[in-house]
Amino acid sequence: MAVTVRAVRTLGDLKEFVRFAFRVYGEHPCWIPPLIADEVETFTPERNPAFEDADSRQFLAYRDGEIVGRVAAILSRAANRKYGTANLRFGWFECLDDVEVARALFGEVEKWARELGMTTITGPHGFCDLDPNGLLVEGFGELGTLTGNYNHPYYPGLVEAAGFEKEVDYVEFTCSPPAGGLPEKLERLLDRVRRQSAFRLVPFRTNKEVAARAREIFHLLDETFEEVWGTVPLTDRQIEYYVKKYIPYVDPALIKVVVDESDVMIGFLLTMPSLSRPLQRARGRLFPFGWFWILRGLKERETLDFLLAGVRKDYRGVGVDLLMIADILRAATERGFVRSESNQELETNARIQAFWRYFDPVQHKRRRVYRKSLG
Hints:
The chain is α+β, with helices and mostly antiparallel strands. The protein has helices at 11-25, 36-42, 77-83, 99-116, 155-161, 184-196, 207-224, 236-246, 276-282, 290-297, 320-335, 350-356, and strands spanning 3-7, 54-63, 66-76, 87-95, 120-123, 135-138, 165-175, 200-201, 255-259, 265-273, 303-311, 339-341, 345-346, 362-373. The protein is globular and about 70 Å long. The model has no long low-confidence stretch (mean pLDDT 92).
């Protein structure tokens, strides 16, 4: 039967769009189901402040009346202003192993891009850097993470068959804390940093204390990621949205912030216990038992996920990152974590990858962002 593609127009369509991923992956041991309510909210303009500076269309592909694929197209005006581009993003691509379906979906994305006067399409992306980014091209036997989607091994072939080529890759590492603490070389350097530097760590004891400085963290995130490929600045409303959404659930001991002598934030490191297994148990729903698994997961002590980190440009190379890493290593060891996930970082980020070498890193995943020129 022929493939037809229709735009999502109703709440019912949107829920079908979200639920299709559950059909594609089922009980796959590496897939981490998203929360259905969060996914619906992401594409609801009244709920997601990203729509202040973006538009989106979502498409569903059908064959013989049955959904066989989906994709979202995102016009990020903020990204196009920042990079001086005329680019349309795609994301949330899920598809059965069928080239015809993939080409039909991307055909609709391309059609909208041309209507808008865009000259390129890139993806997978989200509205901002806190959304899923990149397509898994290595590590198909590895468990996914909260911030890194899983996809089947046939997905890269479908995207490439639709005319896309590699734009950039991200790599991910799993690491183990070194036996006996930091290597002697780093301990000596850390001692010098503590003795000679005016900056200091801010100790957090409660979520309220974290919340009081959370907006500074997000503003510094924008500043430190300004030159990183593909990043999109957040609006004040987006910052408020994420502060209210995530800060109440963090462990204050796993959030590290460094300030200068004037108490101005110059570095941050955000980590949390892995929620991969709890989200699998929740199966996309908070009720009736999803909350139980997630709250229990926040107290688990096996894998520590490194989410985001940044150091202000004028303080790089002077030990700010070492100060935060040493303290998170201490906190993680005290809590009994046995490994960590770096989550994604650009393959060209030699500085951070050189730092990971002290922690027995194993590169176990690679993600790719694709690009297609429209001529």
